[in-house]
Design a protein that fits this description.
Blueprint lengths: L1 E8 L6 H9 L17 E7 L2 E7 L11 H14 L2 E7 L6 H13 L3 E6 L21 E3 L8 H11 L12 E6 L6 H9 L19 E5 L2 E6 L9 H4 L2 H14 L2 E7 L6 H12 L3 E7 L10 H12 L8 E3 L11 H12 L5 H14 L4 E2 L2 E2 L2 E8 L4 E6 L7 H15 L7 E6 L3
Parallel strand pairs: 1-3, 1-4, 4-5, 5-6, 7-9, 7-10, 10-11, 11-12, 16-17
Antiparallel strand pairs: 2-3, 8-9, 13-14, 15-16
Helix pairs in contact: 11-12
Length: 436
């Protein structure tokens, strides 16, 4: 379960991107010794003390009229809006600057938990440099050296401590789903068509859905919640045109959903961004349905649907398990197929297989196609157990986990799908060495 979102803020060139890389454990952000080089927020997932959280790397805020200042300012404001905890990074080498004081005032207004990291404190002899930063009025500063990894454990301890307790389960017993996709693919119109009422503002201008409202409803005795992904809290063209912001909103909605509807625009066809956003749902292990909207606007014959389905399968290879629905929100065509598909996918995502039945399928699969040998050794599966749902996760107890090749794992997944369908949900297969 994701504990929350951490935003890293600070003026340019204090080491935010290096700290981001330290926290997520990989080099994802551009690190360059030029102020203002990180122009886009970059997102990652991190774990510390068994808590998982999202991390946003921001561009810096500064007072001087530098290039990208407005955009950077805006990105930090958005990150502050979205974050549960804020990591404010300053430089121990530079001391407090006017920009630091300006950012500190912004952060105090946010009323969010703030962790103050004094970066570039490369050895203990420089520790006295941190005391000046008490003057920012943001609590105890923590000395760190992102470049050398000094103090990052203490910093992460404070970050994890500051996350709010999110243990209470919202919408318990209800099927939660969201619609994700590029701007103007018809997400709002689809929500309206499902609800059969004008609950969401709809416009032809990209990015006009400004209110993020979760809508609960009942249909044929079942309870559902539509988790809105499109809401943009701040008005103005600049905010509305930020693709990265909409991706952040989509990621937050995906985390809270059971089933994700990936909406494709039938008029413009598949774009790279569709695949990018759908990848988040797949990686999060959520149930997935591909919804091809604006079907009424497509010139078609009796072969069109098959051709488009083939193209979608070729473009979304990693979503081979996801059902594809062709609908028109505008004409309310095939809208009735959405909720039954959501129910089916949700049911499969929480399906538990009896252990003896699961083992029968796995053992039959081994007999039909034995695992290939690798360096003279052959994988042997002794026992299988389903350890969790949403997504269904199978642990195989084997002689050597290294021998489970991805191609044989895919073969086993196909055997499981043949036996139990698992429509719309990924299956995770893990190998563990059997204790002797």
């Amino acid at each position: 379960m994701i504990s929350g979102i951490l935003a890293i803020v600070g003026r340019p060139n204090v080491g935010k991107s290096t700290i981001f890389n330290r926290i997520i454990g990989e080099r994802k952000s551009i690190v360059e010794d030029i102020p203002g080089v990180t122009r886009d927020r970059i997102y990652g997932k991190a774990e510390w003390l068994t808590k998982e959280f999202r991390v946003i790397d921001t561009g810096g805020i500064q007072l001087a009229d530098q290039p990208f200042r407005d955009e950077i300012n805006m990105q930090v404001e958005i990150a502050i809006d979205e974050a549960d905890v804020i990591l404010f990074v300053v430089s121990g080498k530079d001391g407090i600057t006017m920009d630091d004081e300006y950012i500190a005032r912004l952060l105090q207004k946010s009323r969010k938990p703030i962790v103050l990291a004094v970066n570039k404190v490369d050895d203990f002899s420089q520790n006295d440099a941190i005391y000046e930063f008490y003057n920012l009025g943001l609590g105890d500063p923590i000395a760190v050296s992102a470049a050398h990894g000094i103090g990052t454990g203490d910093m992460l301890d404070e970050i994890v401590k500051a996350f709010p307790d999110k243990q209470q389960k919202e919408y318990e017993g209800m099927t939660r789903f969201c619609l994700i996709g590029r701007p103007n693919v018809g997400k709002s119109s689809l929500v309206n068509a499902i609800l059969n009422q004008e609950r969401v503002i709809v416009s032809d201008i990209e990015g006009t859905t400004r209110d993020a409202i979760d809508t609960s409803f009942k249909r044929e005795g079942k309870d559902y919640v539509v988790i809105d992904t499109a809401g943009i809290r701040k008005k103005g063209k600049v905010y509305e045109n930020i693709e990265k912001y909409s991706v952040l909103r989509a990621m937050a909605a995906i985390e809270r959903s059971d089933v994700v509807l990936v909406v494709i625009d039938g008029e413009t066809g598949i774009r790279d961004q569709d695949k990018h956003v759908a990848g988040y749902a797949h990686e999060a292990g959520k149930g997935v349905i591909i919804v091809y909207n604006k079907w009424d606007a497509v010139d078609k014959d009796e072969q069109t649907m098959q051709k488009i389905e083939k193209e979608i399968r070729a473009q979304f290879l990693y979503l081979s398990y996801a059902p594809i629905l062709f609908v028109s929100a505008l004409k309310k065509q095939r809208i009735h197929t959405l909720l039954p598909a959501i129910d089916e996918v949700h049911d499969y995502s929480v399906l538990r297989i009896q252990t003896n039945v699961l083992n029968e399928v796995i053992m039959d699969a081994q007999l039909m196609t034995p695992p290939p040998t690798h360096k003279g050794k052959r994988l042997k599966i002794y026992y299988a157990s389903q350890v969790s749902v949403a997504p269904p996760t199978i642990v195989l107890f084997v002689n050597d986990p290294e021998l489970l090749h991805f191609s044989y794992k895919r073969y086993l997944e196909n055997c499981l799908r043949d036996a139990f369908a698992f429509t719309g949900t990924t299956i995770r297969i893990l190998a563990r060495e059997r204790n002797r």
